[in-house]
Amino acid sequence: MQRKEFIKNSCLLCFGVAAGLSLSGCGAIPIYKPTIENKIIYLDEQKMVVNKLNIIQHASLPYDILLVKNEKGFYALRMQCTHQNQPLVATNTGLFCNAHGSSFNLDGKAMKEPAINPLKKYIVTKVGQQLLIQL
User: DSSP of 56-96, one letter per residue?
Assistant: First the structure.
């Protein structure tokens, strides 16, 4: 195999692997567009209970919020990298910064530098059938 062909095939392989990794799991997380009033996000618990992870989007939010359900209940993470404030991509295993390669686990802890600080975490309160996130 000639050098030029080797480089071409290697680049195609790397691109294919990277595309596969970046797409795995990201399409599976539902996006929810809630009501926000007085810096409080209002969510219907029935819609959130089905999924372990939900992405919260709203035009008034500078960054999306990842709503996480675990055995203790719900909490929310701002999808903003703590390294240089870039938006994060959520998968079923964590959050990733495409700008500089930082990664965070689903608890918000920085797992890979350059980010070292944890993500902003919001407490989720249950009131009746609604989940409230105070911004």
Answer: E--TT-SS-EEEEEETTEEEEEE-B-TTT--B-EE-SS-EE
The reported pTM is 0.77
Tens of pLDDT, residues 24-41:
444 579 998 998 999 999
- CA dihedral angle for residue 14, residue 17, residue 20, residue 21, rounded to 10 degrees: -100
For domain 26-134, give the CATH number. 2.102.10.10
The position carrying tokens 């939010």 is 61
Q: Tokens representing 78?
A: 């701002």
Report the sign of the C-alpha dihedral through residues 54, 124, 114, 61, in that order: positive
Alpha-carbon span 128 to 102, nearest angstrom: 37
Determine the Cα–Cα distance for residues 43 and 53; give it in Å rounded to an integer: 13
